[in-house]
From TrEMBL:
Domain of life from the UniProt record: Bacteria
Reaction(s) this enzyme catalyzes, per UniProt: L-methionyl-tRNA(fMet) + (6R)-10-formyltetrahydrofolate = N-formyl-L-methionyl-tRNA(fMet) + (6S)-5,6,7,8-tetrahydrofolate + H(+)
Protein name: Methionyl-tRNA formyltransferase
UniProt organism field: Castellaniella defragrans (strain DSM 12143 / CCUG 39792 / 65Phen) (Alcaligenes defragrans)
Function: Attaches a formyl group to the free amino group of methionyl-tRNA(fMet). The formyl group appears to play a dual role in the initiator identity of N-formylmethionyl-tRNA by promoting its recognition by IF2 and preventing the misappropriation of this tRNA by the elongation apparatus.
Residues binding (6S)-5,6,7,8-tetrahydrofolate: S117, L118, L119, P120
Any Pfam family hit: Formyl_trans_N
Family from the record: Belongs to the Fmt family.
Amino acid sequence: MRIAFAGTPEFARQALDALIGAGHGVVCVLTQPDRPSGRGMKLMPSPVKQAAQAAGIPVLQPRSLRLDGRYPEDAEAARTALRDLVPDVMVVAAYGLILPQWVLDLPRHGCLNIHASLLPRWRGAAPIQRAIEAGDAASGVTIMQMDAGLDTGAMLHRVERPLAPDETGASLHDGLAADGARAIVDVLARLAAGDAPVPVPQPEAGVCYAGKLLKSESALDFSRPAVELARRVRAFDPFPGTTMALPGFDQPVKVWGARALPAAAGAAGGDAPAPGAILGMGPEGIDVATADGVLRVTALQKPGGRRQPVAEFMRSYRG
């Protein structure tokens, strides 16, 4: 089969590598334009572009695919290139651009999306992190036949993955990237053999929207329960991270590890401490009062520093 691939970050690169490794004919790759990165803000290609160039696959980097948008010349050039390549199917994984109807209609078998959730739960931009933040027992990958809606297309294949108690955004990302890569190879093998999975419409019940991660969400709000804050710390690792104020620092410090304790572990008797009050510091953690229970912070990062277990952090802390 002739495959066009659209994706940008590491999650998508693993799927592209799997397709190449399985012997599929990837005729072109669409990916986001190179972005400034690092201290020198040098333009850097996306992980998908790097993988495509290493495999000798042509790369398209339109700023938009909308023919009536801000960059109609980019969209028209991409449409011409795709028409000339005549792909049988387009595989999409975390591409970052909305696909207009002309793209959805162009391949013979349409566009298949690798979505990092068990649809219809967690449609949208950040399904991996929102699943952990919400305390879901499981996540997964859905291979979906794309339509004009936001992650509303019919489901072709789903792979479930239980969430570990210490699951982070990074660990779930890596697990789902591998699951998605295997799943799309399986679906395309069936499609090529004439045994395409039967599309299953998404149910109306259980739809959730996974909103984009915002840096403004990083600051831990201790008026929330400790269990919620501990989940957010894990969900937002590595991006956008979480922060808290700590005496001795004029900037927030990053929090990379935390767990919830019952209230009695941080305070003995008397009135309940105000949320955000530091109840104790030691090599096991920094205990902070919350609206319900205590958040024990176990790994931090000073401004301009590196991640440290709390025992190492405390050796040089002068609060």
